[in-house]
Fold this protein.
Amino acid sequence: MRLTWARPEDLVAHELVQSAAEGSCVSDVRERWVAAGGDPVPAAAGAGPRPASPAVRALARELLDELDALPTPLDAAEPDGWGAIVATLPPAPELRRVPPAGHDRFRGAWTGRAAGCLLGKPVEKIPREGIEEILRATGRWPLDRWFTAEGLPDDVARRWPWNRRSAPTSLAENIDGMPEDDDLNYPILALALLDRHGRGFSTDDVAQLWLDDLPAGRVFTAERAAYRNILDARPVPETATHHNPFREWIGALIRTDVFGWVTPGCPRAAARLAWTDARLSHTRNGIYGAMWAAGLASAAMVCDTVDDVLDAAGTVVPPHSRLAAAIALGRTVAAEHPGTGEAAVRAGLDRLHAAYGDLHWVHVLNNAAVIAYALAAGRGEFGPSVSIAVTAGWDTDSAGATVGGVVGALRGVDGIGAQWTGPLRGTIASSLPGGDRRIDDLAARTASFVDRTVHLVDGAAGVADRVAARVDGARA
């Protein structure tokens, strides 16, 4: 069995990178690992080509323990606790608190998230240059419709193989509804969380729900590490740090759109819900990514333009954090290379890859920069926005999903366009209990939380803030 994102010998290389990024000195551990025959270069696909010997695996566990025990330099610009995060933030924006009447933003948000995710599914793990070669070889460059294997030369297909799990259900010739994907499982799971616990849920409630409803084989990177830590009875927030080198990757960002959709016009309250969820598996910028995604979703339910959405969501990100810098770069690049023409997009993506090309393709910083760029450059047009997110070539389905959810909320289902909505057939497959869902039903459930609680949003956020403050105090 090929086990990804979990073998100790694969985690060491990733932890060396992560610990160094946090300011820890890892040179001694790296030297011992290399001397023992360990590979210091992280595996891009989640697992190296072969399992380690028992002796090397035992050393890997020992070194992971040592790396976990290294003192992490404190950075006031990038705190983990809710109270400390809020202390860094600018004033919350004044936005209307309910979606505009007569505009079906809930259906648009779910539909857009699904369509954007589906566009990126077959090319997940394929780098930017491979995506372009595939599209040119099939006459679809620049990207403006679904990928296809029809007419793809054998040598290109061998050089850039489709995502094995996704290709049978995510190419133009075989799409029949939205196939199962973790980027859609997590929003569905968030609805279950709210059903069971309301807005006052705790991080332990998230952990219990994972054990109850989330198949262990359908979690990846930081979530897989956190799942293991939950089963090992490790407490929050140790679930996010023990043998988890993926704690600043994109995993938490993909889990929190629903918290924004049910908290329209209140990005700060949405971000607090996202923080409670994200701290199970992530730290620092991994948490901020989740908060930002929730802020984007909250603002997209009530704002009229992408710029307004980006401005509002930016107020929930610590302003001197690396995530804030990544978002700012994405928006700056869109301003300096305006439009969605081939030359402008190539120049924009060149800038982002020059800045973040050294990061793993599932890291939060590079993907956040792409999400911000795709939204700003796409100017609220669905096809160009999700196409930019996907052709960037990092976490293609996750970036496409987040961008699609924002633009879908802004434009509604009709504004997305039948080209993108038709193949979904109004359904989303899921590996969660209950199986496939209808998008209309998911949208109605989401809207019901707003209908029931919109007048209590500020009060509910205040209660949750007091809970979070107690958690912060217990950690101090």
